Amino acid sequence: MIPRYSRPEMARIWDPANKYRKWLDIELAVCEAWTERGLIPGESMDRIRARANFDPRRIDEIEKITRHDVIAFTTSIAEFVGEDSRFIHRGLTSYDVVDTALCLLLKEAGGLIRSGLAALMDALRARALEHKYTPMVGRSHGIHAEPITFGLKLAIFYSEMSRHLERWDAALDTISVGKISGAVGTYAHLDPAMEESILARVGLKPAPASNQVIQRDRHAAYFTALALMASSMEKIAVEIRHLQRTEVSEAEEFFHKGQKGSSAMPHKRNPVLTENLSGLARVIRGHSLAAMENVPLWHERDISHSSVERIIAPDATILADFMIHRLTSVIHDMVVYPEKMLENLNQSRGLIFSEAILIKLVDRGLTREEAYALVQRNAMKAWENGTWFKDELLGDSELMGHLSGQEVSEAFDVGHALRWVDSTFDRVFS
């Protein structure tokens, strides 16, 4: 079943009628190849081209009797074509059609996902450039670390998504194959050259070797690439959720006029969009595991993969497409609070510059252990007493025996800490 939130373009791909259209395209390509070989008369091929069609409802009716979807499909075609239908499906096994068509569908869905991913990267790039010099505190283990900029955070996300674009292109190339090699892949009733010409007609390459199916490591690579992509989208979503926390309040999802956050608490502005993205990422990761479970099939093929793929192929692509477009809108409309970022940057009263003091002391000849002890004891005083770290340092006679007041002040320069922002942006966006 197509989820109600799917985009029309993606939903159309997984409509049964589109699947049957792909099946028919393959059947007609095979007939064209046989015509070139002289086995289907030209006039018969003309009639097949003119008449070939299918009725999805009729296919369902026939399948209730045959219990075989491809036979129901070819029977429906025969009702349109008539006597010349005897040439259709010549030399094929069902999965020559079904597996090749599945790759066509995954390739088509993958194209939409790729265009969405490019749009997401554009949104990340625009907001990164907007906040290239917006200072904020970096956090490790959730604790204030050293200064960064919000633009740097977004640039990291952009760079990660660019790697997903590379992986996705590779996954699309891996899945863009077909097989017209017969019941166990031996070309018992046609030949490899014919397979190549048939697949070229529908825009695929031949799998170098196949049995009754295209090998499922290809599909697993596709769904794993989707799972990795979803995991990075969740990573971005989790960051936005953290930044929206009341105690942080540095950025938040756009809150629409008339939107409600809670049935009980009118003040609530919850990060529901990004929370939703976190949940959907779990589903897609589960689908990637199911795809990996499909790799080991019995001998030349069993049917255990089929039921799985009927679920995960539309579900994973539709969910990924939805996630990409939702995250793109979140990034585009995200409200950023630079003043709050600066307030939080100063919340630790200068403790985030401790490493700069440590390095200055080491440069004065202290061992790292000696310097660390001097800096840490003053940092702990600032933590425990709620005082400014710089004041504690200036009041420590032992430490000030190694540094001047000007040198201590220089260590608290945010601009110095962020002096390589331009260089990083050049590397990311060049």
Describe this entry's structure for a reader.
By secondary structure, the chain is mainly alpha-helical. It has 3 domains: 80 residues, Fumarase/aspartase (N-terminal domain) (Fumarase C, Chain B, domain 1); 227 residues, Fumarase C, Chain A, domain 2, CATH 1.20.200.10; 61 residues, Ribonucleotide Reductase Protein R1, domain 1. 65% of the residues lie in helices and 5% in strands. Strands 1-2 form a two-stranded antiparallel sheet. Helix 2 crosses helix 6. The radius of gyration is 30 Å and the shape is elongated. The model has no long low-confidence stretch (mean pLDDT 95).
Quick take:
With 430 residues, this protein is mostly helical. The chain has helices at 8-13, 16-36, 42-51, 56-66, 69-81, 94-130, 150-175, 192-202, 217-244, 272-293, 304-333, 338-345, 354-363, 368-385, 389-394, 397-400, 405-410, 414-417, 421-429, and strands at 135-140, 143-149, 177-178, 205-206, 251-252, 335-336.
